[in-house]
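Hi there,

I know you've been waiting on this one. I reran it after we fixed the sequence typo, so this is the corrected version. Both the input and the resulting structure follow.
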Amino acid sequence: MKRVFWTGLWLAVCLGLALAAVSLLYGAILHRAGGLPVGAAHRRLALRCVAVVLLTAALLTGVLAFRLAARRGWLPGLRPARPPRWGILQAAMLIIGFLLFQVIGLVLVRVIFGLLAGGLAALQQRLEHVPVVPAGPPGVVAQVVAGYLTAALWSVWYIRRLGPARLRDSGPGGIGWCPVKDRRGYAVATGCALLILILVIGLFYAVPPDPRAIANSQLEKIFGQPGWPLAILGILSVLIAPPVEEFIFRGGVLAALSSRFSPLWAGAITTCLFMAVHFPEKISYPPGFIDVGLMAAAAAWLRYRYGSIRPAILLHVLYNALGMLAPALLQYLA
């Protein structure tokens, strides 16, 4: 349907330009014919013949010009479909867009919330004739969820432009959104998650966190919400974030970097980028960079080893779930 629209539009443009040129030429002929010593009947017949010839020529010229321009790829919307490039630049744009659209989503929810709250307050004031206190900004949980979902939708759209073949490609240059080659990969992913949990507990005892830094951290402000906001964040962290982030990092970014670097370097760069994105969460407890880095490195290895990002998704799900349960487990062990 989209191609039909662009075909009709550009064909109309080509025919319109040809008819405009012919109309100017016909006007010049009329002006010239006015001074010819020919009878009125003969002049009208000649001008009609000229008009038919010019109109036919205009139609043929417009169609031929359209065909030539379409074949040369000069017309937007009718250019031959080419697979989008996927390299280092696209990897950088993907990560920058992922971060930028989180801010855009946060701003959008604040603006929409402000408009709705302002409209409801004005309506209540008009109906009840009492002053209404304007509502404050939306809660931190709503802003985090809106920002993350906006960034996730944009990132998934950006990667899906590669097409089904690239998405299901299990090679280093593919996204790996395909069934795992060996189902033992899921067992290996589970084992990796348990080993990382043991490491987290060991780091906690070896390098205890500063309670004041933890209390003032961004992560505590977000996950310190009681009741249903905590449940929403739990769903976001365990069920939504792992597949989205694996699709972005061990899918899109890793595939893009693999087009230029070896699997080892591509995995190392992707791991460092993943750690950098999680900098605000781990800065209050720097040893936390160790476990998030190991999780990212293990996810990249699982992606290469089993030809699919699904074991990496399972690892990420277990890592986030066990990370949310770790404080309670540490408190119980204490």
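Quick highlight: Residues 89-333 form one domain.

Best,
R. S.
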